[in-house]
Specification:
Elements lengths: L9 H8 L11 H8 L3 H8 L8 H11 L3 H7 L2 E6 L13 H19 L3 H7 L5 E7 L1
Length: 139
């Protein structure tokens, strides 16, 4: 059986979401690029570790295409994530009624999901203790 030139953990993640060549059934950088809306050369450079400072928008697109949290894919390309202190709303938040607070809470949850690539359930699990991941630096 033929082997893929795509390294792990990329190959397994690509197979899991069907980012494979229709001819060979092997992980395909072209298929991943199409799913993510990212040029194949960019995908190849990231997967092969040739990109020194990966663009977070590109990493986010790849994470979504692979159905992985952004922090996981970021780690694959050498971006470190650190825990951030819990969010404390400004004192003016006391002026909001219950429905307004719920709207603000839902907005925050939506923004966090977009940044992390997590599903609502994964985001809820990750928020235990009020912590959130944040992009910090490259290795």
């Amino acid at each position: 059986m033929a082997r893929s030139n795509v390294p792990e953990p990329w190959a397994s993640a690509m197979e899991a979401v069907g980012a494979v060549s229709p001819q060979t059934g092997l992980p395909s950088l072209n298929a991943l690029g199409q799913r993510a809306g990212v040029h194949t050369t960019t995908v190849s450079n990231l997967v092969q570790g040739k990109t020194q400072a990966p663009d977070l928008d590109t990493v986010t697109k790849l994470a979504r295409a692979l159905r992985k949290p952004v922090r996981v894919v970021a780690a694959w390309v050498g971006i470190n994530w650190v825990e951030n202190r819990p969010y404390t709303p400004p004192k003016e938040a006391d002026l909001l009624d219950a429905s307004e607070r719920e709207l603000v809470d839902n907005l925050i949850r939506s923004l966090a999901r977009q940044k992390t690539g997590l599903t609502p359930q994964e985001a809820e699990e990750a928020s235990t203790g009020g912590r959130q991941a944040q992009l910090f630096s490259h290795k």
